[in-house]
Amino acid sequence: MSDKLFSTRDEPLASEDLDVCRRVHEALCSGLNIDRSSEAADRLGALIIELYRQGVHDESQLRLLAGGRGA
Predict the structure, then answer these.
(1) Selection from 54, 51, 57, 53 nearest residue 20 by Cα
(2) Is there a contact between 61 and 28 (Cβ–Cβ < 8 Å)?
(3) The pLDDT of residue 1
(4) Which range of residues forms the domain containing residue 25?
(5) Which of 28, 40, 46, 60 has most Cβ atoms within 10 angstroms of its Cβ?
(6) What is the DSSP string of 10-67?
């Protein structure tokens, strides 16, 4: 059995990681005309963080994957 109780996806994000996710979220909300206080913005934020945790750390790739286009 593994000594590791949590996967790396369970580790907290550092402030630099959150800055990347925030910039992508703000860019996509603006580009897709999504109110940042809406449920759609919440879902988008969760998707961005999940993609980041899966290893997508490039901002343009995050925008493409989360926004469905080159937003």
Answers:
(1) 57
(2) no
(3) 45
(4) 13-67
(5) 28
(6) GSPPPHHHHHHHHHHHHHHHHHTT--TTSHHHHHHHHHHHHHHHTT---HHHHHHHHH
> Which tokens is 9 given?
């996806």
Contact 27, 71 (CB under 8 A): yes
Query: Tell me, what's the pLDDT at 12?
Result: 87
In a domain, 2, yes or no: no
- Total tally of structural domains belonging to the chain: 1
* 10-residue stretch averages of pLDDT, the chain, 71 residues long: 55 92 97 95 97 96 85 48
Is residue 21 included in any domain, yes or no? Answer: yes
* Residue 5 placed within a domain: no
